[in-house]
Structures are given as structure tokens and as C-alpha cells.
Task: structure prediction
Amino acid sequence: MRVVLQRASEASVTMSGKVAGSIGPGLVVLAAFEEADTAEDIQWMSGKIARLRVFNDEQGRMNRSLQEISGELLIVSQFTLYASTKKGNRPSYMRSAKPEMAIPLYEQFVRQATQDLGRAVQTGEFGAHMEVRLVNDGPVTLLLDSRDRQ
Result:
């Protein structure tokens, strides 16, 4: 599982002109899945996102987590995070899980994140054409991969 995480002061995802999800201060997570991903990857990633200290404390140091600031979370599916650009000029997405596998993983990830935060998580719609708008706070942008946790 791979995610791009961005600290945001506000963000939203729109589909066909309608806002599907929006947040105030918190994190925007673009999430991709591969066929080797398991429930363990999802639990690890969700817990890492909830506890990652990327929000400022009173001294202006990144020392607080999403849980600690009661921040919001917007999760958007993003299969292109597994793109390979090694050959030619057209990216290959062979490493990305096919929808029949990726959709249940995405839904499980949203449920796990909701459980870990103890509150609702905002989302887009898997496979839909979406417009994601965000005000990146910092800017703070991180790449997390469940294969790199060891």
C-alpha cells in the first residue's frame, strides 16, 4: 500500500460538480493498493497516519498527530501512485491492484481509519473522475509505503 499524505488547512473532492467530501484542518491521503496488500498493511498504514506527528505544537514544531489535534481526514483512491515510467513515455499501472481487489482494500482502509480516529472520514468515490482541491499547509507532503515499514 502506498499513500501520499498532505497536511491541509482545508480540502475537498468534487465529482460532476458536486462536493463528495470536504475537510478543515487535517490530512489529505491519496491511497493506492497493489495485489500483495493485506489487512496488516491497512492496519499499519491507518495507524501510522493517525499517529504521525506532522502538526505544530505551541513552539511551532511538528510534534502533534491527527488524533491529538482532532483533525479531519480525506481519503481519495489514486491508483497512479504505482505507475512505472521506466520504459517509454506512457506510464504502466501493472503494479496497481485491479478494481475487484482494490475496492475492498480501499473500503477496508476507510473503515480502519474511521476506527483509528474514532470519527467519520471523508472520501471520494473509487474509480470516479474527481477534482481534488486542497490548501497544503506548510507545505507538508509525505510518501508512505507499507513495504518500507521494516
